[in-house]
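Hi support team,

I submitted a single chain yesterday and got back a structure, but I'm not sure I'm reading the token output correctly. Could someone confirm the output below corresponds to the sequence I sent? I've pasted both exactly as they appear in my results page.

Thanks,
R.
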Amino acid sequence: MTRALLNQAEEMAKTIRQQPAQDRLALRPEFSRLLSNLRIEGVSVPRHLQQLDTDLSEEEAETQFDNMPV
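Hi R., thanks for writing in. Yes, this is the structure output for that exact sequence:
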């Protein structure tokens, strides 16, 4: 099962990288859940997947401030 989860996370990461910013953020909850499930299974999450999750988190935070008046 852990190999299947890792493959699923890799495929989702590939899909996320190909999407425009708005669509990437829509996939973040599912991607984060996959990474969490990998950690629960005791799998060491590859660095590039962790970095993608961090990048998505930062993008999401930035979008919250885009519409704030200055």
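A quick pointer for reading it: Residues 21-40 form the longest helix (20 residues). Let us know if anything else looks off.

Best,
Support desk
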